[in-house]
Specification:
Elements: H1 7-16, E1 21-22, H2 23-33, H3 42-54, E2 58-66, E3 69-76, H4 78-108
Antiparallel strand pairs: 1-3, 2-3
Helix pairs in contact: 1-2
Amino acid sequence: MKTPLQEPTFLILTALAEGPMHGYGLILTVTELSQGRLSLRPGTLYGSLDRLADDGLVTVDRIEIVDGRARKYYRLTKEGFSLLRAETERMRRAVEAATSRLNGRAAAQPLTAPLRPNLAGGVA
């Protein structure tokens, strides 16, 4: 699997880091983790899970029958945990570098010009 991971893939793996989940649970958790920015459709989710399984990053943990329908629970494999850990560390370092540069810039000069009153007049 190529890194950096796309955000939906990263969030699916992150959701599964807590433990096995079924599809609908993953959809809800990904929406929560993304603070509502990302809402996976079932076709997108299951396509991603199939690719992740083909890459050896997730596997089916168990299948339960609920209301006569099979409900698959997925879990991370050791490889999935390793990839998620590595990607999280890569992202942490990137955020640390950006934060450091932003803090350095903020110390050198403000990001925005100071506010000055509008002396041109008019109705506000």
